[in-house]
Amino acid sequence: MTITSAPLFTEFRLKDVVLRNRVAVSPMCQYMAQAGMPNEWHHVHLGARAIGGAGLIVAEATAVSPEGRITWADTGLWSDAHTEAWRPIVSFMKAHGAVPGIQIAHAGRKASANRPWEGDDHLPGDDANGWDIIGPTGEAFGVNLPRAPREMTVADIHRVTRDFAAAAKRAADAGFEWLELHLAHGYLAQSFFSPLVNTRTDEYGGSFAGRARFILETLAAVREVWPARLPLTARLGVVDFVPGEQPFAESIELLRLMKEGGLDLVDVSHGINTKDAGGKVPWGKPAFLGDHAKQIRNEVKIPTALSWGAGEAHLANELVATGAADVVMVARAWLDNPNWALDAAKKLGLADPLSVLPAAYAHWLKTFAPPVRAPK
Ligand SMILES: Cc1cc2nc3c(=O)[nH]c(=O)nc-3n(C[C@H](O)[C@H](O)[C@H](O)COP(=O)(O)O)c2cc1C
Asked: With contact defined as beta carbons under 8 Å apart, do 23 and 12 qualify?
């Protein structure tokens, strides 16, 4: 059956930005930078997926400071040289129809790790590539990340908030049109929100208000500098699948406050705050956060993006059609196929699947579609 359109391939407007479809490339750390500088690798990785038809591309977790990197090879945005290095990559994505986005992050107690294919564990304290790490408390994550962070002072907290704002401003200067704050996966911001990690007794811990304070203050600082006409979004770990973690109701309440504070969309994810979290996540269930995203969308009345096991075309389409997500974030399937959007358009039976690609690419695929004829 051929169809003229499918919900996944309809436009999505948020503020002054229009996505050509609701297929996004989810942020994916490449661990291929030197001193935080993006390079040809990032240009090709992100650029290929713009040519491949993505509506939105969110560049990987990009550190707001050197200490905020997961590994020594993370990208960064802590100097104007980083802004300049991102600029041509951003401009390429934009020129080929994708909205260029970036996720800005601080890894907290999970920082100073080896690249995944070199061990995925904390670098030893005396390793030349490593550095001292910080967290809401002095407790280590554990297992492969055994190094204890230094408990942050209030001055440290304010400095990291300023680092987020400075990175957001640089992201806008580089031409990015979609900003995602990384508030998930057990990195710094998420670990502040987690009652299992954040046992501080000052105004940045304890009650819901205390644990939410770092996130809300960071959002407010970023809101000041990020252009009002562009989407300000966040990836939040809304559940953690571990007893004692923040209840889902707290995440909903936090999102209400964030919406009041200027958040335009939430990218629904999970926590991974403690070493026990990973094993309990229902990894095998397709789109296992779909119900959470739908509830957030209905109750908070904020647009949602959704990832985790949503990289099958019919499922992605259904998540949009049934109101679980406004945008579907796909990661691994894009690695498998840089033309994922074209493949999805074919699988969904779009009458003109090539229309999801930039005109030049579509033209050549049409021209040389079988039976082959010689170019004029
Ligand atoms: C190689 C790789 C790198 C990733 N890096 C990030 C990252 O930088 N930031 C983030 O929030 N999630 C990261 N993730 C998680 C993905 O964005 C995505 O949420 C997850 O893979 C689930 O989507 P999928 O089922 O389509 O792969 C990464 C995933 C992969 C496979």
From this structure: no
